[in-house]
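Protein record

Derive tokens from sequence
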Amino acid sequence: MSKFKSPLSLFLMSVILIGLLALFGPEEKVLGANVRVVYLHGAWVLAAELAFLAAGVAGGLALAAKRDLFHHWSAALGRTGIVFWVTYLPLSLWAMQTNWNGLFLAEPRFRLALIFAVTGVLLQAGLWLINTNWITSLANVLFIIVLRAVFAGAENVMHPPPSPIFNSGNFVIIGFFLALILLSLLAAYFLMQAFLKSRA
């Protein structure tokens, strides 16, 4: 396989494409051009959450069907999710600094995100060392359940619901954000394939 067609190379190229696209995102009347960082951090964390969700679903299927394929997918997706989750944190700090002129590290959802980042890294490292299919799948199922349960009850300070982007009524902004999400999911797919290939 050409090195330019390897999953890791495709992942890196997709990340570069996402970065370039984010530079030309539509401005917003309040935040101006700085809103582009918000678009990027939103799409990136959504890709992380969907990877965790997919890891949990694959893990559940693996435990039910006892198929190694689903176990392997769960492991690769869990690792993909934590890579996206950890790299989302500096994007979140960047969004705070550029749009609110300071770092609000006590913000409830950022604090929880940091806790889950540390926990997730330790968990995925432990699962890699243990290297037992059913434990990995079960851990990924439990991780997404706990993550969603905790965030469902978290206070919203800098993340007001419902989504300001999808409720903006601006179809240019919505379309651009959807494009970033799709590209982030594509990058996550390539990274997952890289993890699967490294296992093989």
